[in-house]
Write a structure and sequence with these properties.
Largest sheet: 4 strands, mixed
Oligomer: single chain
Structural class: alpha/beta
InterPro entries: E3A/B/C-like (IPR044611), HECT_dom (IPR000569), Hect_E3_ubiquitin_ligase (IPR035983)
Distance between the termini: 64 Å
Radius of gyration: 31 Å
Low-confidence stretches: 1-71
Catalytic activity: S-ubiquitinyl-[E2 ubiquitin-conjugating enzyme]-L-cysteine + [acceptor protein]-L-lysine = [E2 ubiquitin-conjugating enzyme]-L-cysteine + N(6)-ubiquitinyl-[acceptor protein]-L-lysine
Number of strands: 10
Mean pLDDT: 84
GO molecular function, one term: ligase activity
Shape: globular
Pathway: Protein modification; protein ubiquitination
Strand content: 5-15%
Domain HECT: 391-730
Helix content: 40-55%
Strand order of the largest sheet: 7-8-10-9
């Protein structure tokens, strides 16, 4: 951005506001003196929605538009002739730096940015071509970048002239649809680095408002043109928009901006323009920037539940809510929404149970407020599945686990261990429900047919319980699984509607069966005669319990040869068969089980990758971060025992570090908020140093005797964390 500390660089916009007022008087405007004239826009709520309400999941495809939006483009007005090249401009800048005379550069900037036509005249690759397609914006990106890179190093009067010119362009009186030249100008102006400075925000806000108010067809072009911007410039525009939203929400100097009451449209406009860049980012594989780069952590500090409830209650209205644009909400904020939504559902269910009991004049029992699961370690899977099947009506109550014959009281630790042990057993290959693929280090659903898929439903419920009770699981499903789990994110009312079916690609198969996917990719790129050399048909074979069974990928597939012409269809049908059709009943049961616990509109806010993080946490352990956030009781962080402890732990292998985390917290996964969210505590144990360390997993607390040396501490710690199953005295 512009250099900080120069308080007079734009003289609080008095010159610009004067210009705005004069322009408005010329066109007979009656609006307030600080608001630019916009056609047919009264306030932020009148802006057309960029992404349709996510509750309805009716997102318009970026690649296909209805016929009515494909109106013929208005004729482009003739452009002025401008012949300055990149080299000419760079030479002018160098001469100005050497001589101190910026007249030529000032003339270029003031002329170029004086109107949308002049912007096109300067930056359009060929002024004689229309460039009316989504494939090519016609913008000379190199020239734009050079001009903007030089701008911030020019004198203040040059920079002011650019902003004055932008005001002139924004004040243009529009008499009809925007031309492609207008869209090109918007695309170029969005990349202006001057908008990183808060003193330019009044102008920036009106630019964003005009872009947000464009038609869906115009947005279609801007999205496709934006994906051609370089990664660095793309990230800068996104960061600029996020900063604009943050500073409007929490201004460092409120006096710099108009009162919030007079500019309620600022944040909706910026968010809607940001949605265009999010759409552009999603069109590229791999994306231009990570989806996490669209997170605005400032939103973690607003009333998220109010946003969520407004969105739920007013989802079909034009009332703005950040929940309409979930890409901007961080995973930490979404976790808060889901947790509070879960807590409210738990309280509601528990209250109803209490009311029912009292209405029948029965004595209330505290156990009725919980989902009580009582299991034997020796029959862990069967007992757990029986308990969950019997207590379907209680799944949305707070979970409490009891191990038969053990003295532990469940304050959270028993629940963690129950999940960990149960997942290990269910996903064991001998159990037969899931197949482990060594090449990809992940599990996938077994395609074996059976009479009863209820166990898959109960596994889904188990995963739902983990999310509902904020427990992270050590599950290795591929990303495709979470994409299917959100297809659709809300269980359809019509039970005939297919669930768990999503668009799958060869890339999805690579994440599960890389060897097979590689073979199919070879088929697609084979340069010889596919039909004669491969001799394949649209029929595939699978082994089930030692018996080879055949399946047609399409009607009469066994009679249709795979050829060079239809091999793409063959590969797509084969991938769809493996990831959707062959496991449909298994995954549908799993889907219904998960949603029987986690049914919530909050799921609409999540990307598949975010569901995975909520379910599994992160496997990346950062013990240095844990050291920084650890609290102490009875110890100081400078004590010798504590220094010994961290020397030992930081030197552990990853496997031992995971065992320590599991020993102290009941899980070897890192929660969404990172190590700091564990609230890990080390307490001084006054017992003999002959004793092993003790953990209170309910409170993520490690009780450590004051061992005399590092060797003794390491020995006792390894014994303790390597023999950590069970609660109470054994």
């Amino acid at each position: 951005g512009l250099e900080e500390g120069d308080k007079n660089q734009f003289s609080t916009f008095s010159n610009f506001i004067t210009t705005i007022n004069q322009k408005k008087e010329d066109i007979g405007n009656r609006n307030s003196p600080t608001q630019l004239v916009m056609p047919n826009i009264k306030n932020g709520r009148d802006l057309p929605p960029l992404c349709l309400d996510v509750r309805q999941k009716q997102r318009m495809s970026i690649d296909t538009l209805p016929q009515e939006l494909k109106a013929p483009s208005p004729p482009e007005p003739s452009l002025p002739i401008r012949t300055k090249t990149v080299k000419d401009f760079q030479d002018d800048v160098e001469k100005s730096k050497a001589s101190g005379d910026w007249k030529a550069v000032h003339s270029f900037y003031s002329t170029t940015f004086d109107s949308f036509l002049e912007i096109n005249a300067a930056f359009k690759k060929d002024t004689n071509s229309q460039f009316n397609t989504i494939e090519d914006s016609g913008i000379d990106a190199k020239f734009v970048n050079v001009v903007y890179d030089a701008l911030l190093n020019t004198p203040q009067d040059v920079q002011k002239s650019v902003l004055k010119g932008i005001i002139n362009g924004l004040l243009q009186e529009w008499t009809g649809p925007r031309t492609k030249d207008d869209l090109r100008a918007y695309c170029i102006l969005l990349q202006n680095p001057q908008f990183s400075n808060t003193s330019t925000y009044v102008i920036y806000a009106h630019l964003l408002r005009q872009i947000a108010a464009l038609t869906e067809a115009d947005h279609h072009f801007l999205v496709h043109w934006s994906k051609k911007i370089s990664q660095r410039r793309f990230k800068q525009v996104v960061d600029r928009l996020l900063q604009f939203i943050s500073l409007r929400l929490f201004p460092a100097k409120p006096e710099e901006f108009p009162p919030m009451v007079k500019c309620t449209w600022w944040i909706p406009s910026a968010t809607k323009v940001l949605a265009l860049f999010n759409a552009a980012n999603s069109l590229i594989s791999p994306p231009i920037i990570s989806y996490t780069d669209f997170y605005n952590s400032t939103l973690d500090h607003i009333d998220l539940m109010e946003e969520y409830h407004n969105w739920q209650c007013c989802g079909n209205s034009h009332r703005f809510s950040f929940c309409q644009y979930p890409f901007i909400i961080s995973i930490a904020a979404k976790k808060v929404i889901i947790q509070r939504d879960s807590e409210q559902q738990m309280i509601s269910i528990a209250r109803q149970s209490l009311v029912d009991k009292v209405s029948r004049r029965q004595k209330p029992d505290m156990n009725m407020l919980f989902l009580n699961v009582k299991v034997r370690r020796t029959h862990l899977v069967s007992d757990s599945l029986d308990e969950l099947a019997r207590k379907k009506a209680d799944l949305k109550k707070k979970l409490k686990v009891t191990f038969v014959g053990e003295a532990g009281l469940d304050m959270g630790g028993l629940t963690k261990e129950w999940f960990l042990l149960l997942i290990r057993q269910i996903f064991h290959p001998d159990y037969g429900m899931f197949t482990y693929h060594k090449d990809s280090n992940c599990h996938w659903f077994s395609s074996f047919k059976c009479d009863n898929y209820s166990e898959f439903r109960l596994v889904g419920a188990l995963m739902g319980l983990a999310v509902y009770n904020s427990i992270t699981l050590d599950i290795r499903f591929p990303p495709c699984c979470y994409k299917k789990l959100l297809s659709p994110p809300i269980v359809p009312c019509d039970h005939k509607t297919l669930v768990g079916i999503c668009g799958v690609t060869l890339e999805d198969l690579f994440q599960i069966m890389p060897e097979l996917a590689h073979g199919l990719n070879e088929l697609l790129s084979y340069e010889g005669n596919v039909e004669e050399d491969f001799y394949s048909t649209f029929q595939v074979f699978q082994e089930e319990f030692g018996v080879i069974k055949s399946y047609n990928l399409k009607p009469n597939g066994d009679k249709i040869p795979v050829t060079n012409r239809n091999r793409k269809e063959y590969v797509q049908l084969y991938v769809d068969f493996l990831l959707n059709k062959s496991i449909y009943k298994q995954f549908a049961a799993f889907y219904y089980g998960f949603h029987s616990v986690c049914a919530s509109y909050a799921l609409l806010l999540l990307r598949p990758e975010e569901v995975e993080i909520l379910v599994c946490g992160s496997p990346e352990l950062d013990m240095s971060a844990l050291q920084r956030s650890t609290q102490y009781e009875g110890y100081q962080k400078t004590d010798l025992t504590i220094r010994y402890f961290w020397d030992v732990v930081l030197g552990f292998s990853l496997d031992l570090q995971k065992k320590l985390l599991h020993f102290a917290t009941g899980s070897d996964r890192v929660p969404v908020g990172g190590m700091a969210d564990l609230n890990f505590k080390i307490s001084k144990s006054e017992t003999s140093t002959n004793w092993l360390p003790v953990a209170h997993t309910c409170f993520n607390q490690l009780c450590l005797p004051p061992y005399k040396n590092k060797k003794e501490l390491k020995q006792k710690l390894i014994i303790g964390i390597s023999n950590a199953e069970g609660f109470g005295l054994e």
